[in-house]
Design goal:
rod-shaped, alpha+beta, five-stranded antiparallel beta sheet, binds adenosine-5'-diphosphate, single chain, 39% helix, seven-stranded antiparallel beta sheet
Length: 908
């Protein structure tokens, strides 16, 4: 507002002198007052006093009836700066300066100030008149309008005005945002630009209603944006009237419902979830009053929604648990959730129900907690399952087998007490770790195979393997692995049962070792009982027992008496050290180790001889270190210790009770074997003596026999008496028999002494056979001897006398052992490289089990007829002769049906 300044001529007194005018002023609805030339108020009307809110003091108040004046910007103006003061000082009129007058009660009045200075005729300032026009109402109106405009502009709702013809007359910012059109784009356009084609009719209805003066409130419809998108809106339409109250248009407020709809949808989904949830979902306010109660809550607690909503939640809380609710409310008030809190609630029928409670605070938009939402899960079934689980857990915990579960990735998820004991790790140490810490490096691939199987739902049963304990010790285990499935049957992990089979393995090993030992003992007893050589037996026993005990050194000392001289001698074998080494230490003579085993009647086992007093005697110089000691005396039935077995090891504690048991068994066998060997030796010795005697006797017999034969021949020639001649010839035959026996015996001793000589020649074997047959046939007429040969002349190189001896022997036997038989067949077969001669009888035959014995020295088949006399050496000599020639002698015989003796000789 501009202030006009102008000079006024004339005098104020001209006016003031008129009373009437003063009266008029008093009733003027406009505030007017007058000041003198110094500014003191001299006059004022009623309106002025009303405006100021006080009666000014005439001649005392300066410039204005109010001491507090502010400019339009609400800044205080000093009193002598007020429009009246300035008008008087400067002698100018001020036309309508807007100021604010503050009354004593604090109310403010917007006024326009019009001060006019007054001069006397001489032009001297005599005072001034100021008119104050109250414009408070208008200012407020302006402010209101500005505010409304601002509201319209800042509103989130689209606000549009239009004429009754539908022409848009205003379009706010929110309308721009909502529909995409700018104000400029829409002003003057028809509203139908934002109405979907199928809703054009709506507009008519709206306009009709508005025209009739009806407002439309929250009409939900759809409108089109500039981009053709239909958006849900809530429409409120009111009439716009002109000053005369005539309806000239309509103002529309449109609210975008997109978010609301979305929220509604969300709400619907949420409420569906709440309704279909298996968990009881209950909302309550901070006073504990139930505000919602879903279907599951009805099922769980037995109260219907109607019965529960509006009631206090203590409806379902047992008396002794009411304090829980307080704690819950306290937590919720502090904005805290309560998760998975296990408690008990009461059902409508009074039964209790175990539940798992989760409570979350419900907050309003500004975040204030206004209630609580409770989710209660009925865990009755889980409780039962829980009891079952507890039982299973107890079983797992008390199991002697290690039970471990793990994920398919091999991460350990459970570890029972037995697993702790078996492997040495505590549960805490292994949960979350990969199972591979248990598996030896070279068996890691096993785990892969196991997991692969388990992932395919296949159990692994009693798989024997090795795992590592915490201390790195490998232990044998038997493993069973089964898949762990979730409630949908999907394999999510594996459960392993591992049985420590160390004890089993040890037992098995022990049994195995025992069996092996038995086997060794058996084979040992077989070999040692078959062998009759003392030293061989001793060496075998020493070697095997040293090996069995794991000794570093073993020795066997055997004392015996020589048969011939009776002198005591010692046989000694060792194992683990060479004989030289053994003797070098002068072991036997010097070592007390042997002596005390010889003086004891029981096995002596010492884990560390260095720790026993005996050790004070010390070991011979240069003796290897000895700690473990095992001494086994070998005792004859007479309790006479005949031998000792000794074992030593440089390390202590190498021998066990088990070794003792084995050695005990072996020592018994050894004693028997040694006794046998000794007996055998005695037999051999006796045999030797016998042979010596036979050799000697036959030799001594031969000389007189030769003399007797000579004298008999002379006697035969000289004797003429027929009877005497017969006696002589009989005697000659008997002497010949005797000579033959003696010569056989001599042969035997020659064979035994290896002194049987052969005088080989080239001769016709057939001729020798014929001669032998002739000789026997002459003497024996009881049997007819037939000869068959496939050759006439077959020359061989051999001792003809010895070969003839063989044939004569076989022919004599054939006749002797076939007393009932009448003939003997002899065959000669030239087989090219050899000649085969057979002597066949049809006599008593020989049983199969005797056949191989008949070639032994002095062997005769038992129970022979006494007429079948003999010494049992004929076949022995024949066999020796044929074999010395590189040939063979054998028999084909059937008991009771005769025998054929064959011999073959090489043809050279
Ligand atoms: P001896 O005839 O003097 O007893 P041998 O060494 O010639 O001694 O024979 C050994 C044994 O073989 C005889 O005792 C006899 O039992 C058996 N024997 C030998 N020849 C025959 C045979 N031809 N038929 C049956 N048994 C025989």
């Amino acid at each position: 507002m501009s202030i006009k300044r102008f000079q006024v001529s004339g005098k104020f007194s001209d006016v003031s002198n008129s009373l009437q005018a003063s009266d008029v002023l008093d009733y003027l609805p406009v505030a007017v007052y007058a000041c003198d030339n110094l500014g003191y108020i001299t006059d004022y009307n009623k309106s002025a006093a009303t405006l100021w809110g006080r009666e000014p003091e005439i001649g005392k108040d300066l410039w204005c009836g109010s001491s507090k004046i502010l400019n339009n910007d609400n800044e205080p103006i000093a009193p002598d700066e007020c429009p009246m003061a300035r008008s008087l000082k400067e002698g100018v009129c001020i036309e309508g300066e807007p100021i604010i007058i503050e009354r004593q009660d604090g109310t403010r009045i917007n006024v326009l100030s019009y001060p006019v200075p007054r001069f006397d005729l001489s032009g001297t300032l005599i005072g001034g008149i100021n008119t104050l026009i109250d414009i408070t109402g208008q200012v407020k109106m302006d402010q209101k309008q500005a505010m409304l405009a601002a509201i319209v502009d800042t509103s989130d709702d689209a606000i549009i005005s239009k004429t009754l013809q539908g022409i848009i007359t205003s379009w706010n910012k929110a309308a721009e945002r909502m529909f995409g059109y700018t104000e400029a784009e829409t002003l003057g356009k028809h509203i139908s630009i934002i109405i979907p084609a199928n809703r054009i009719a709506e507009e008519e209805t709206i306009i009709n209603n508005i025209a009739k003066g009806n407002a439309i409130i929250h009409f939900e419809t759809y409108r089109l944006t500039k981009y053709g998108k239909e958006i849900p809106i809530s429409l409120s339409v009111s009439a716009i009237r002109d000053q005369d109250g005539r309806i000239t248009g309509a103002s529309k407020i449109a609210r975008d419902l997109t978010d609301v709809y979305a929220a509604d949808e969300k709400k619907a989904v949420l409420s569906a979830i709440v309704d279909t949830s298996d968990d009881a979902i209950i909302n309550k306010n901070m006073q504990g009053i139930v505000t919602s109660w879903n279907k599951s809550a009805e099922k769980t607690f037995g109260y219907s929604q109607d019965e529960a909503v509006g009631k206090h939640i203590s409806l379902i809380i047992p008396q002794d648990r009411l304090s829980e609710e307080e704690i819950i409310i306290q937590n919720i008030s502090a904005g805290n959730r309560i998760d998975h809190f296990e408690t008990i609630r009461i059902k409508k029928d009074g039964d209790t129900v175990p539940i798992l409670l989760s409570v979350s605070p419900i907050k309003d938009k500004s975040g204030n907690v206004i209630g609580a939402s409770k989710i209660a899960r009925d865990i009755s079934e889980r409780k039962i399952a829980g009891a079952k689980q507890a039982m299973l857990a107890a079983i797992v915990d008390t199991s002697d087998d290690a039970i471990i579960s793990k994920t398919l990735q091999g991460i350990v998820t459970s570890w029972n007490k037995a697993a702790e004991k078996t492997f040495g790790y505590t549960e805490n140490e292994v949960i979350g770790k990969h199972i591979s810490f248990l598996i030896p490096k070279d068996r890691l691939q096993e785990e892969e195979i196991i997991i692969r199987n388990v992932a395919n739902g296949i159990r692994v049963d009693h798989f024997e393997t090795v795992r590592l304990t915490k201390s790195g010790q490998p232990i044998p285990i038997s493993l069973s692995v089964s898949p762990i499935k979730d409630d949908k049957g999907i394999v999510i992990g594996a459960s392993k049962i591992a049985r420590d089979i160390s004890a089993l393995k040890t037992a098995l090993l022990k049994t195995q070792r025992y069996a092996e030992h038995l086997e060794v003992i058996n084979s040992l007893s077989r070999t040692i009982s078959e062998d009759l050589d003392m030293e061989v037996i001793l060496q075998k026993i020493t070697d095997i027992t040293t090996q069995l005990t794991g000794a570093q050194f073993g020795a066997f000392i055997y004392t015996d008496r020589k048969l011939s001289t009776g002198e005591v001698y010692t046989l000694c074998t060792s194992s683990g050290a060479s004989k030289q080494e053994f003797e070098q230490f002068n072991f036997i003579a010097n070592s007390w180790l042997f002596n005390f085993a010889f003086t004891s009647n029981a096995i002596i086992r010492i884990d560390d001889i260095n720790k026993v007093s005996l050790a004070s005697k010390g070991l011979p110089r240069g003796h290897p270190p000895v700690a473990s000691y095992l001494g086994v005396p070998l005792t004859e039935s007479s309790a006479n210790i005949i031998a000792g077995l000794f074992f030593v090891h440089a390390e202590a504690g190498m021998f066990t009770r088990e070794h003792e048991v084995i050695l005990q068994a072996i020592s018994l066998q050894a004693v028997i074997a040694l006794q046998n060997a000794r007996l055998y030796k005695e037999v051999v010795n006796l045999n030797l003596k016998k042979d010596e005697f036979i050799g000697m006797a036959s030799h001594e017999l031969r000389t007189p026999l030769t003399s007797i034969s000579g004298y008999l021949q002379i006697l035969d020639r000289l004797e003429t008496n027929e009877k005497s001649k017969r006696f002589v010839s009989k005697t000659v035959r008997q002497v010949r028999k005797l000579s033959s026996l003696v010569s056989d015996l001599l042969d035997v001793s020659k064979i035994e002494a290896g002194k049987l000589e052969l005088n080989k020649r080239h001769f016709n074997i057939k001729r020798i056979v014929e001669e032998a047959i002739e000789l026997i046939q002459d003497a024996q007429i009881s049997h007819e001897i037939n000869f068959k040969s496939n050759v006439d002349i077959l020359n061989i190189t051999a001792d003809p006398q010895r070969i003839e001896q063989v044939i004569i022997n076989l022919l004599t036997n054939a006749i002797k052992y076939s007393p009932a038989g009448k003939k003997v067949d002899v065959v000669l077969e030239d087989l090219g490289s050899e000649v085969k001669i057979g002597v066949k009888d049809s006599g008593i035959g020989i049983k199969p089990d005797k056949q191989k014995n008949i070639f032994n020295r002095f062997y005769r088949v038992e129970d022979l007829n006494p007429s079948m006399a003999g010494l049992g050496i004929g076949l022995y000599i024949c066999k020796e002769i044929t074999e010395r020639h590189g040939g063979k002698l054998w028999v084909d015989s059937a008991y009771g049906a005769g025998s054929t003796f064959w011999f073959s000789l090489p043809v050279k």
